[in-house]
Amino acid sequence: MDKTSRIFLAGHRGLVGSAILRRLQADGFANVVVRSRAELDLTDAPNVDAFFKSERPSHVFMAAARVGGIVANNSFGADFLRVNLQIQTNVIDAAHRFGAQKLLFLGSSCIYPKFAAQPIREDSLLTGPLEPTNESYAIAKIAGIAMCQAYRKQFGFDAISLMPTNLYGPNDNFDLTSSHVLPALMRKMHEAKLAGAPSVAVWGSGTPRREFLHVDDMADACLFLMNGYSSGDIVNVGVGEDIPIADLAHLIAEIVGYKGELAFDASKPDGTPRKLLDVSRLTAAGWTARTPLRDGIAKTYRWYLDHVAAGDARGVAAQ
Ligand SMILES: NC(=O)c1ccc[n+]([C@@H]2O[C@H](COP(=O)([O-])OP(=O)(O)OC[C@H]3O[C@@H](n4cnc5c(N)ncnc54)[C@H](OP(=O)(O)O)[C@@H]3O)[C@@H](O)[C@H]2O)c1
Fold first, then answer.
1. What are the domain boundaries of the chain?
2. What does CATH list as the number for 7-310?
3. How far away, in angstroms, is 198 Cα from ligand 1 center?
4. Which of 6, 226, 252, 267 has its CA 20 to 30 A from that of 145?
5. DSSP string, 217-243
6. Which atom, in ligand 1's list, is nearest to the CA of 62?
7. 182 C-alpha to center of ligand 1: Å?
8. Which tens digit of pLDDT belongs to each residue from 1-23?
């Protein structure tokens, strides 16, 4: 990929896509093509074909997907399965048929078995049952990986697949019905602080451990691997360390300045007990994450404050 390459960035308004876009713009890539969902619904195969036929991108970042937290995943499994299968099938196939040189597909750490040995190595894929609460999403993502590998094998198409850990940062989704744990806790504590609420409910026991990567680091890894990695072997992208949800909640409370009680509700589902990615494949390739969790959360909270004030934080009504 060079500064004049024609790059299609799918999902440029999302958490990951907007971080990749910021990075491509900062690095001087001058030929980036983007389409909002309203302009090009990627579930619509004929329109995706027409787009690739006329735009002919040489490089494709696939950051468009139906994404959500535990509640959304658990409640809308049919949508998560169908929409993700459609988007990735349409885009991967059209990219290949209309001559793209390379495509980067994003999976997720939830593709791995619920009780995979920790830290999770890439070769634990398909070695055991999945976490039931996000099975539909995970199966769609596994199909996307298989599609990249099959297109590489059958057609020599240079499609690579990255498995990011939990991501957070600017442009995250703060809608409490569909958000991930970190933005949800940030919003709840911010609003509890403003309301002077004595306690904030935190879903689950607080004991599961999770890993969090700042999305600007994720964008950095995407460019690094788009430029320097070509293999059907999937690559984990993470920081290599995790934190109990209870500790994360206390850290967010400290950064937000919320002084009330954190009430852990063990009647709500915990999900997978631990999800730490083994990042040795990525480290061996020469990449490591740079943003410490505390700094990343503090930066994200500043972004949240600015954008709540401006009325354009996703999932938060203008205030
Ligand atoms: N967030 C995480 O923690 C995380 C962790 C691991 C992996 N990932 C992966 O990273 C990728 C991006 O996730 P994200 O967190 O950035 O998601 P996100 O913030 O929800 O963004 C998803 C993007 O996809 C677009 N999109 C959805 N359906 C579409 C459709 N039918 N046609 C066109 N565009 C569509 C959305 O467009 P609109 O803005 O118009 O809705 C949005 O821009 C996904 O593949 C996800 O699996 C994310």
1. 7-310
2. 3.40.50.720
3. 35
4. 6
5. HHHHHHHHHHHH---SS-EEES-S--E
6. 45
7. 16
8. 999 999 999 999 999 999 999 99
